[in-house]
Design goal:
It is a single chain. The longest helix is centred in the C-terminal third of the chain and has 28 residues. By secondary structure, this protein is an all-alpha fold. The model has no long low-confidence stretch (mean pLDDT 78). It is elongated.
Length: 84
């Protein structure tokens, strides 16, 4: 197995200081290029994120519904006694 310093350098993570700087630059560039919000509180996210946001919202709602269903089932099994 050969080790090439150049290939290791490409796969090694960037130092935290460099990542923070790049993230700051990316946020600044994104904010400068973002459109003006349509209303106060408008997140002004690009429409390219819409499908991902909808999937995330569906997953969060499903998780909440599942947790509520488990809670209700446990309540039924215990006869409604709250163990808290």
């Amino acid at each position: 197995m050969e080790t090439d310093d150049a290939s290791n350098a490409r796969t090694a993570p960037l130092p935290e200081r460099v990542r923070d700087h790049l993230a700051q630059q990316l946020r600044a560039t994104y904010n400068a290029q973002a459109g003006k919000p349509d209303y106060l509180g408008d997140p002004a996210l690009p429409s390219a994120f819409d499908p991902q946001l909808r999937r995330l919202e569906r997953r969060l709602k499903a998780q909440e519904a599942g947790a509520d269903a488990v809670e209700a089932a446990l309540r039924d099994l215990t006869g409604g006694n709250d163990a808290r």
